Amino acid sequence: MSEIKNNYVTVLWEARAKKGMEAEMKAFITGVVTGSRYDAGCIEYEAHEVEGQSGTFIIFERWESKTALEEHLTCNRMKEKAPQLLELMEGSIEEGIRLLQPFRPEK
Question: pTM of this prediction?
């Protein structure tokens, strides 16, 4: 297997709504997706709810660089939204973040 050399960063973020807050968290995520898609360096930003697991959400993100991702995570909009998100979700925001490294079989 070989790693694919690239500069982009792929993120898989998973979060679970607190019991009884599933609809509110889905509405919250719906409201922040569009703004995030327009952040500098965003290639792809898609929100999903896990089928059969109401209140479990996954956001798939692709950024041009780690710098672009960091700027997104620390922008004023996200800083303002974080406390509201924490009221809706179980655990911390950071717990759900996974950075993905692509690879493929050797030819």
Answer: 0.86
